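Researcher: First entry.
Model:
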Amino acid sequence: DVYLIRAAIGNQLEAARRPEWAEFKGGVMFELGCHVIDPIVRLLGKPTKVTPVLHKHGKFNDSLNDNTAAVLEFGNAMAIVNASNLQPNSGRYRAFEVHGTNGAVIVNPIEPPGVVVDLAKAAGPYKAGKQTMPMPPYKRYVDDFIELAAALRGEAKLRVTLEEDLLVQDVVLAASGMS
């Protein structure tokens, strides 16, 4: 049973781009946090409560909320998302962790993906203990465009329904303090 998801995603946004990101109250949560909120909602469904924490901690003359967090509450679990524009070398610290009563699966970094499974007892093909999982090569967006092209040609349906996508967008807006 999953009881916690922790996700961290950040960058060190160049000063010239900050005004563009500041156009939305959610700042970095709206721009980057959405990438990890999407899989959280797909895994756990609709949260019962979303609490955004939006701060500007960077020493810049703008209004960008550049250090943000959100707590998503579910029936028997919670998710904590952190998104920041202040993090040097951020790529290596982007992480997605799923914690359950039998252990954890940790993706760190997210790109290129590194995955560790750490289980109290064996489950399916996974043994008890900590193990690093090999991941196939990954190119961002390639599979998404292949799926979209097949759907446009009528060869396949999209894996994500409009209702699922709308739910994700509602949660992103709530986590960004924009709903």
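Researcher: Second entry.
Model:
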Amino acid sequence: MKDDYRYQLASNKIPKLNCPACGKAKHWQRYIDIETGEALPDEYGQCDNAQKCGYGLNPYKDGYHKRQPQPAKPIAKKPKPKPVYIPRTILEQLSASDRYPANGFLHNLRANVPYPFAANDIEAVANHYQLGTITRGYRQGAVTFPFIDIDGNIRAIQVKQFDRDNHTVSTDFVHSMLTRDYQRKGDSPPQWLSDYDKQDCKVSCLFGEHLLQRYPRNPVGLVEAPKTAVYCSLYFGLPQDDTSLLWLAVYNKSSFALSKLRALEGRRVLVYPDLGATTDWRDKARKYQAQMVRTRIKVSSLLEQFATEDDIAKGRDIADFLITHDWRNFRPAPKQPTQPL
């Protein structure tokens, strides 16, 4: 069809020239490139004095169109694949409270820290974040930190092994452990696991993000690692009212990203970076706040005020400072019930 051709007679879109054959003034209709809007060389056209002349030179008949660079065909965008989540049954199995006695991380909080925490507080915080336990295999005794988004989808489950001082020994992920287990047995993994492994970004939400629905108006205390968020909740207590800080974590230093912080839009956010990350996070926070409606982000420099050169070199975080103090001194005083008049 005519409309499919890139080069077409311009009609009155551009001025007509004198016909090169009959010499009639302003009778030479020229060809135009409809993609660029530019006229072809003057020799290509058609005399509109059809009865007396009728001369024309078509750019398709003499091969002009073959000598021109062809426009690149638009690349069709592939539909974005739907995200794949970890089944809730796996989280429920890992986070069962009867597994807590085998959890090295939770045991340390009760027995090996300078100021041991109360057992009921530890269990409350473990339930708060839905922490879990690996009870068999080479990761036996490890704690699991689930990354559950605001809609309740399980994006990732990190596995951490700690020594008796709760310093990291090794890090893994539940999906990686499951994949290796199927490979070792020579079995095919379930479809969800195969699809999940193909995703580029696994840890794609905040640790504790699912709690935002439960505490819709609370300000947020944001730290780097899940372990740090747990320690802060133990020291400052779980939220008691709308003024209490809800402690969340980004995962690691490079995870302080706008895509994750979007879940905090409209809140007050107090950020405690690990030592060595403060300047970088403060610069990013300034940019993020400008793109988030009704959001206030303040990056604390509290750690720098007390840090030694050794603290900075080791990249210590707020949990490393808190653990040297008695947690009882940080808990807010219980509110007294209002007495009737």
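Model: Note on the second entry: The chain has a mean pLDDT of 91.
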